[in-house]
């Protein structure tokens, strides 16, 4: 079971704006914050997401093949989250739509640091 996911950032203010907007649409907010990281989620709830300046002081980098998937309530929320991501500095990696079989509906985007995210729902 995943407790939380941490993504590196090179610009905490830019990440805060991006993830604050995503978290607000998902009905949550910041649950922990220091000068070097912010974590979004609900204590005792599902897995949270954190943006952090790398502990080793080296530049943050994007993992090839790494992606964080966020579960949406329905297809309309998938669309809203995709739109929010792009309006807050994210870039498109695949517009909302059905993917494969079994009712999987998803959108893909990257945060301002290049970390790949997905929002999805299962019909």
UniProtKB/TrEMBL annotation:
PANTHER family: BLL2941 PROTEIN (PTHR35006:SF1), GLYOXALASE FAMILY PROTEIN (AFU_ORTHOLOGUE AFUA_5G14830) (PTHR35006). Pfam families: Glyoxalase (PF00903). It comes from Hyphomonas pacifica. InterPro entries: Glyas_Bleomycin-R_OHBP_Dase, Glyas_Fos-R_dOase_dom, VOC_core. This is Uncharacterized protein.
